[in-house]
Amino acid sequence: MRTRQRGLLLALGLFLSINALASQAGFRTLSVPGLPADPGPIPVALFYPTQAPERTIAMGPFTVHAALGGAPEAQVKGLIVLSHGHRGSELAHASLAEALARDGYLVAALRHPGDNWQDGSLLANGPARYFSARPQQASRVIDALLQDPAWKDRIARDARGPRIGAVGHSAGGYTVLALAGAEPELQRLATHCASERADDPILCGLARTGDPAATRTGQTDQGVPTLADGRVRAIVALAPLGAVISARSLAAIQVPTLVYEAEQDRYLVPRFHAEWIARNLSGVELRRVPGAWHSAFMDIPGMPIPTPDGDIAADPPGFDRPAFLQRLGTEVPAYFDRVLSSAAP
């Protein structure tokens, strides 16, 4: 017993000491082959720990603070996949990715093919395809990095294999939950909007205009493949889409899960989404962000970006988004440090 305890303490100490000197975020891009049904590759922004000095780089409407092309550390604490929301960008959560990188993680922020700011075509094949493709795309990125000669040997491992986590916002929150075992149930979403349209108006209004909620009564999740990725050992869901997930599948999830809800979320009203997920998922940690709207988890863009919930940059009076993002950049790395450090099966 003492030998095992000593081994666990040594493993934990090694985990926490990896990249202890790294205080900068590096940045590179990667192109991953897409799914067989996708028309093109998956663009990925990689954030990682480096000793190279950071600089401020404007990339479209967002700003990255990183060492462009800086040499990565010899080893990272783990791999974190980052999934953006519907019609989003791989750079929309750059500050969180940078914080994770400075804490010692390799972060792979993918741009979901067919569901990003440039291309919303994924839904053309129907909601069943939408809800299956997103987690499959994330798993494809994990496949690529675990096989990439430049990265595969840098990712920390233990008796269970590579240390891998995932974080996602909105539809990306659904995506990482699916990697943990959540299953889409399209009929549930249709029933939800039939009865709760007045109280969840933005999401259910999108159901009439071809967004992820676009499903007809009678559609089911039959034929949707298994989406869980057993390599993912911890997830963080930021204001996640939950109305499409079956309660049965949530109850079966055993992956450590942290859920954030935006208290004043109008896009995905918490009691139907984040709170509903938390009620049905055992062992989940739920953290409420007082006074926040749905976009509070995104970096503030340098130009207006309209959405059905208004400008992405807008916040309720009195809400300090920069301060919250700084807090998020402390809490999320600390969560992954805690749950990924255990070597126990």
> Roughly how much helix do the residues carry, as a percent range?
25-40%
* CA-based gyration radius: 19 Å
Strand order, main sheet: write it out. Answer: 3-4-1-2-6-5-9-10-11-12
- Described by the principal axes of the CA atoms, the overall outline is globular
Order of H and E elements: HEEEEEHEHEEEHHHEHEHEEEH
Main beta sheet: strand number and arrangement?
A: 10 strands, mixed
The low-confidence runs, each spanning 5 or more residues with pLDDT under 50, are 209-223
DSSP summary, beta strand count: 14
Structural class: alpha/beta
- Classify the beta-strand content into a percent band: 15-25%
Taking the alpha carbons of the first and last residues, their distance comes to 16 Å
Q: Count the helices. How many?
A: 9
Give the averaged pLDDT, no decimals: 89
